[in-house]
Specification:
CATH topology: Nucleotidyltransferase, domain 5
Shape: globular
Radius of gyration: 18 Å
Distance between the termini: 54 Å
CATH class: Alpha Beta
Number of domains: 1
Number of strands: 6
Order of helices and strands: HEEEHHHEHHEHHHHE
Strand order of the largest sheet: 3-2-1-4-5-6
Helix content: 25-40%
Largest sheet: 6 strands, mixed
Length: 220
């Protein structure tokens, strides 16, 4: 993969591709109803899967599954009736992260995942402090001619087949990971993207919990 594989930070990094399915109650933040994650490493030029997780999540009473949610994901209230609550599902995912190890979350339109994780930070504090890479700005940098940068467009561009359960978290994570790997291979041939720091500069998003806390503008 060219010069990128020589970067120690890239070789040591675990990239956790993450995707949520949600329900969006009026006047409240989106609530997760499913999460999937796929951990990838590339220590010597070959990608390795170092972990995988998936769970349904029972939404709170104020955020029931709607017909629109079911049309999008296929999930119904019956599917989620006995699912783990967010504390259990996201807590289990959070504990998969090794303290002190370097991680970056990877997502398609990472602002969505960043917001969901931020609002669930009490259940997943490690995830909430993990910065992100967004496949969209990376794709815009590397493939500037596409009409848009939706996931389906990127799948078509790279010749990646549509998964059987598009808009379910596990399948979306799998294809997002494939897109990410192809983008990284393209980046490795770009002399202006010589290392992980350059990728982060193009496509990084700081986790909200890592942003400085602003003091009150007119605080005494």
């Amino acid at each position: 993969m060219g010069h990128l594989i020589k970067d120690p930070a890239f070789r040591e990094m675990t990239f956790v591709v993450v995707d949520f399915e949600t329900t969006t109650p009026a006047g409240r933040p989106a609530q997760p109803i499913e999460v999937a994650a796929l951990a990838l490493r590339c220590p010597n030029g070959t990608w390795e899967v170092s972990g995988r997780a998936q769970s349904l999540i029972r939404p709170p009473a104020f955020a029931p599954v709607t017909p629109a949610d079911t049309a999008q994901t296929g999930l119904t209230a019956e599917h989620l009736h006995a699912a783990p609550m967010p504390a259990e599902a996201l807590g289990a995912l959070d504990r998969r992260l090794t303290p002190g190890a370097p991680y970056l979350l990877v997502a398609q339109h990472a602002a969505t995942e960043a917001g969901l994780i931020h609002h669930q930070a009490e259940h997943c504090p490690r995830l909430a402090r993990t910065d992100l890479l967004d496949t969209i700005p990376l794709a815009k940098r590397l493939i500037p001619h596409l009409p848009n940068y939706r996931l389906d467009t990127l799948l078509a561009h790279f010749g990646i087949p549509q998964p059987p359960n598009r808009h379910r978290a596990a399948d979306d994570v799998d294809v997002t990971a494939q897109v990410f790997i192809r983008l990284v291979h393209a980046a490795a041939e770009d002399p202006q993207l010589p290392d992980l720091a350059a990728l982060v500069k193009v496509a990084g998003r700081t986790a909200k919990h890592n942003l400085p806390v602003q003091s009150e503008l007119f605080g005494m």
